[in-house]
């Protein structure tokens, strides 16, 4: 089996990156992580990647005079690595439309809400303020619109009466660590692809596994 080559972009500890690394250890998993890149040279996830024998690359945004210059340097590293798929895993930097366009259909992201609800930051606090009874996370293809790309998979958790932002965040994070490997598997196997600005699923198997209900987590 030819595994899809995956690059992961992070800005911090990379807990979702670690979940993907663990999934890729299964010989039957259809992808392998070939490199981890960060815009923060002190990102803890870089050391985690190195500990697993994965190439870890810092492309510090502070070293470049503009967003365009930083993205050019990042893109040069990605071109060298030649990934089939790019996974954003807590990459806390907005990307230009030009950069996203170069990787259209090959870049995916995980966001801590049930998109299209609560795009952007502070999604857990906003879910609580809105009185939501369910919350969750979404893996989607990346487009120029922030958190607006076609949805690949979603995971749902209940919102409890005594939840705080911290407890809800922790419950969602557990689902994220299950959902992201599932979504990457669908993409790597060709069971879902971005076509005409939409997520197109190949056959009933992909459609059925694009939704993860997790009522018993935490």
UniProtKB/TrEMBL annotation:
It holds the Pfam family Formyl_trans_N. It comes from the Bacteria. N(1)-(5-phospho-beta-D-ribosyl)glycinamide binds at residues 14-16. The keyword Nuclease does not apply. Residues 4-184 form the Formyl transferase N-terminal domain. The keyword Transferase applies. One of its GO terms (biological process) is 'de novo' IMP biosynthetic process. The record marks 147 as: Raises pKa of active site His. GO terms for cellular component: cytosol. It catalyses: N(1)-(5-phospho-beta-D-ribosyl)glycinamide + (6R)-10-formyltetrahydrofolate = N(2)-formyl-N(1)-(5-phospho-beta-D-ribosyl)glycinamide + (6S)-5,6,7,8-tetrahydrofolate + H(+). GO terms for molecular function: phosphoribosylglycinamide formyltransferase activity. SUPFAM superfamilies: Formyltransferase. The active site is at 111 (proton donor). Pathway: Purine metabolism; IMP biosynthesis via de novo pathway; N(2)-formyl-N(1)-(5-phospho-D-ribosyl)glycinamide from N(1)-(5-phospho-D-ribosyl)glycinamide (10-formyl THF route): step 1/1. Keywords: Purine biosynthesis, Transferase. Coiled coil: none annotated. Its EC number is 2.1.2.2. NCBIfam families: PurN. Belongs to the GART family. Catalyzes the transfer of a formyl group from 10-formyltetrahydrofolate to 5-phospho-ribosyl-glycinamide (GAR), producing 5-phospho-ribosyl-N-formylglycinamide (FGAR) and tetrahydrofolate. This is Phosphoribosylglycinamide formyltransferase. It comes from Phyllobacterium leguminum.
């Amino acid at each position: 089996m030819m595994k899809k080559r995956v690059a992961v972009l992070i800005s911090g500890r990379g807990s979702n990156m670690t979940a993907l690394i663990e999934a890729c250890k299964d010989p039957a998993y259809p992808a392998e992580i070939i490199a981890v890149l960060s815009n923060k040279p002190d990102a803890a996830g870089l050391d985690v990647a190195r500990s697993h024998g994965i190439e870890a690359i810092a492309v510090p945004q502070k070293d470049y005079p503009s967003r365009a210059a930083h993205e050019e340097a990042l893109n040069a590293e990605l071109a060298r690595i030649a990934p089939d798929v790019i996974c954003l895993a807590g990459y806390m930097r907005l990307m230009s439309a030009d950069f996203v366009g170069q990787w259209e259909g090959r870049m995916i992201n995980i966001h801590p809400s049930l998109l299209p609800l609560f795009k952007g930051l502070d999604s857990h606090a906003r879910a609580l303020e809105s009185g939501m009874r369910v919350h969750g996370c979404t893996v989607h293809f990346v487009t120029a619109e922030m958190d607006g790309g076609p949805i690949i998979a979603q995971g749902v958790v209940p919102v409890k009466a005594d939840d705080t932002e911290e407890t809800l965040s922790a419950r969602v994070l557990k689902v994220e660590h299950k959902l992201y490997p599932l979504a990457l598997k669908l993409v790597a196997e060709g069971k879902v692809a971005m076509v005409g600005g939409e997520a197109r699923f190949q056959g009933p198997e992909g459609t059925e596994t694009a939704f993860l209900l997790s009522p018993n987590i935490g």
